[in-house]
């Protein structure tokens, strides 16, 4: 894909305020309700202090963006500059949107505190084995690391901005399971995802790129057809508890060059094995806590 400098820099971050909200695209004309730690508030009540953001740094990073784009493969370039992530505050209230490129630049994460909404899918088969993927070598962030089944972002579009019953996030998960792993939508109905919790974390990938995400943890138990997309995934495997613990041992010992994604490691260390009990017992809903946002480091 040919990518001009104007195309790379055309999508600037927008943050909401009462004066600017009327000029935003249709998705934000939806009725918003957000579950925080203690209460549900209307979108306008929580976010009405946000201002329109205009970055004076954009003129200084245009050249960097063009250079970065030239160094990416076509698929990752399209995703980085065309996908619009959902910006949120630390209470998971939507405050705007920006390109995937900007949301993953550590300079912008640190200087502008850009935080975006994400999801992590943990898919188990009927033998209660967890499907893992190794990210492709062409990934801009965390290439070739092992991670949970699918990790990505709901986009700034109507179907993925729906707050009720986390439907927007579940719609995004179904979309990306097809994109990354070739899992048909009928194999993973959106009503079969169980949201268990939310985590907030920040993690650098290298000196330039990183993550700052409010991540929804979605569990699902289904036998599925898997056809990995090589632009996204290098390898896959199902693991039981003992096999995952052996993988962790090898990672910690520095064996075979194995690495885990930081978000997956945080979930493993804080939640996964106790939630695995609920997977096997069929009691996932008992483990769900969508009111708390766990700030993990």
Automatic annotation (TrEMBL):
Signal peptide (from-to): none
InterPro entries: IsopentenylPP_isomerase_typ1, NUDIX_hydrolase-like_dom_sf, NUDIX_hydrolase_dom
Name the UniProt record assigns to this protein: isopentenyl-diphosphate Delta-isomerase
Its EC number(s): 5.3.3.2
The family this protein is said to belong to: Belongs to the IPP isomerase type 1 family.
Boundaries of every Nudix hydrolase domain copy: 114-266
Organism: Actinidia arguta (Tara vine)
Role, per record: Catalyzes the 1,3-allylic rearrangement of the homoallylic substrate isopentenyl (IPP) to its highly electrophilic allylic isomer, dimethylallyl diphosphate (DMAPP).
Swiss-Prot/TrEMBL keywords: Chlorophyll biosynthesis, Isomerase, Isoprene biosynthesis
Gene coding for it: IDI1
GO CC field: cytosol
GO terms of molecular function: isopentenyl-diphosphate delta-isomerase activity
Enzyme superclass (EC): isomerase
